[in-house]
């Protein structure tokens, strides 16, 4: 039997009737059309589907949509303030060539948002530890690390 | 031109869309009335199908159709042979290609036996549980030598054996080399399977529009044009009725150019049957069975040398694991055969292989595509020979390099592209010297390693060389158009999977036309926008499509200068293209914008000179005479944890020569990513099949991809030996990072365990396997 849920996604409220077994990733991608969240493994390993639920990074393939009833979800589509106004973390990735095919990138960006809030000046080791929860098959991670370092620097410069 | 676009580390045009989640991937396609597909796949690797009962599934609410092989009628056909055997004497080839749905028997675990179409993927997957297949299990054959035994189970019974192909290629006389040698080293080397594991699994959306009579396919393929041509032929449609779009693709690495995957054929067919759009997205578990894999080979190899380390010859007999079907012909084993010779003078070579059918998923190229094995065998033989001859590992390589004045250098055998294996250019020693410098080789061997070993650490160093045949034909094309906006569009037929084509191709064009790279819009992967082409594979995009773009852009440049000359009443040689304008040199006030010129070149009224072509547009094609030979050196220092046998890569160096560089930022990314996959292949990733052909680690929990904690920073440098075979002088770089890493790990581990005489002869390794190898060495008597 379907359940009705109300979820705020990127600041906008959605009320939908969904099957209890519907995954949050499928809800975001197919029910409300936010396809920036990608699904790479459906078992919580690759991290491509990472989104924020109440500002905490979670794997949307391991949550049911109904578990987000009454909560706030943030996806990659909510990061920038428009096509010409990238988030500073996104700028870091663009400048440092922190992506190739770009499939894993939204999940990595969403993992980084709360991480950089808590660790505004992370060491390379801390960045690599955080990134070890997200698989990337294209870059070898080196330029992702540089992108995070640059993004952190840009955020610090802006806030200082 | 004042600012060069070519060769600069320009950030990528495609990134803003990818970074904001607004790039279209295949699974993002959402169409009205779309149905969803799931496949029932065999759990058994080898079994006869007695019957399939789809009754229950067909009756499930929300299920629209269930198909088995029997429902396909005449449409059921084995797939086409993608690559026919090359013209090599003494060649036997037995064609057996994949089928859309298994009919009488299944030949590998994961082979599809039924297809369910339903209102949602959830319903489709539920319905799979209601299909009953009565199998008669058969003994499976998984080992390569086992497959050749007299009593081996037969993957294709009608063949009478499991041999897919046998090929022998020779140069010089091995017998003579062996008789003249001071030392002959003989060893057996093993290389086992892994999977490409692109983060995006495969997927297809197929939509038949009754009113326009057109079929549109979104496909995660590396070769949209070939898919269009094949599907049109199979479905009895005109090529103009089929549009294949390969949108943004989440990593390719080779398996996405396999064709035709059963799902590609079936989705297109069923969309026509049902008149509704269909979507199938592979899940990760399916990817472990249904997407092709690579790298199972067993080599029995020998090298003959003089006492000073000079190579006299190599003999190699190997078995290649083709899996259950061999749609890709001989590409992989021939690539192994040819790449083995490396950057060395090898006067005689005898290489023979048998490609063998097994009850395992299909094998087609995966980044490196057979080259890893060749490099592993040759580098290992040299390592072992150096030890036996008491010659330094680096010195034995240096002594055998092909000297720079001997190019083009013929190896007298046939490469995978059917052309003679002739290296176009190369200069190996400077790259080796630079790698030694960057890794501090002498210092490490001389002082650091002894000091650290004294302190109880176990550390090793390695340096290996390789060459890579890249940029093979047949051809690619490009159409360059200056639009009335003043911006430039370039269309090509190769697909793109993250290589940065939207930027590197734009740089090639911008260089000619005098516009910003961000003003060049690259269109790839849409058969409606460019008709001709082969696809993205074999490190060929920049070489083949890049040179087609260069030619088309040069032609447009000439058109621009001609028309501007008329408008500005100046000779073409007095004009320059600058920042989107054409101006008389040194006279900026006498100029015309490209947009204005484009509009002038496309008059809407009046008359033109007979023979005038409209627009500032040109289409050109490029096909190289043969591939361009890139080369490189990898070096590494690693530390072994004595308790866990986990490795820490302390330093990793790549010195690479891929000719002229278009965008160093993108090139570095390609190298770094390739090395990461090579590290996975060498020490983390292995597909474990049991004797029944069941895959034991079909999840990313159990099949370990390297993470950010495992892959080190890579220190790289580049040398430029331009290819004489194309105007840009470029060579391919896509696979370079991945190719020699297995050989590098083996040498570094031998070095770290040289006190007990470790000799690594297999890849992949793992901490467990390394522990076993070390434990198997009999303890030496202490003096």
Summarize the SSE layout with pairings.
The complex is a heterodimer of chains A (160) and B (783).
Chain A: E1 3-9, E2 12-18, H1 24-31, E3 50-53, E4 56-59, E5 72-74, H2 88-96, H3 105-118, H4 124-131, H5 142-159
Parallel strand pairs in A: 1-5
Antiparallel strand pairs in A: 1-2, 3-4, 3-5
Chain B: H1 15-19, E1 35-41, E2 47-53, H2 55-59, E3 63-68, E4 91-93, E5 105-106, E6 112-118, H3 121-128, E7 132-137, H4 144-147, E8 163-171, H5 174-180, E9 183-191, E10 203-209, E11 214-219, H6 224-235, E12 242-245, H7 262-274, E13 278-281, H8 284-290, E14 297-305, E15 311-323, H9 331-339, E16 348-357, H10 371-389, H11 393-400, E17 409-414, E18 420-423, H12 428-439, H13 441-454, E19 459-470, E20 476-482, E21 488-492, H14 501-513, E22 520-524, H15 541-568, E23 575-578, E24 581-584, E25 587-593, H16 594-600, E26 616-622, E27 628-640, E28 647-657, H17 664-684, E29 714-719, H18 741-752, E30 762-763, H19 767-776
Helix pairs in contact in B: 6-7, 9-10, 10-18, 14-15, 17-18
Q: Care to give the gist of this entry?
A:
The complex is a heterodimer of chains A (160) and B (783). Chain A has 2 domains: 3-78, Ubiquitin-like (UB roll) (Roll); 88-159, [2Fe-2S]-binding domain (DNA polymerase, domain 1, Orthogonal Bundle). Chain A is built from 5 helices and 5 strands, in the order E-E-H-E-E-E-H-H-H-H.
Compute the separation of the termini of chain A in Å.
Answer: 52 Å
**Overall 3D form of chain B:** globular
- CATH class membership of the largest domain in chain A: Alpha Beta
Q: Characterize the largest beta sheet of chain B: strand count, sense, and whether it forms a barrel.
A: 7 strands, mixed
How many DSSP E strands of chain A? 5
Mean pLDDT, all residues of chain B: 96
- What is the fold named in CATH at topology level of the domain at 383-472 and 628-776 in chain B? Aldehyde Oxidoreductase, domain 4
- Helical content of chain A stands at 25-40%
Strand content of chain B: 25-35%
CATH architecture of the largest domain in chain A: Roll
Helix content of chain B: 25-40%
Radius of gyration of chain B: 28 Å
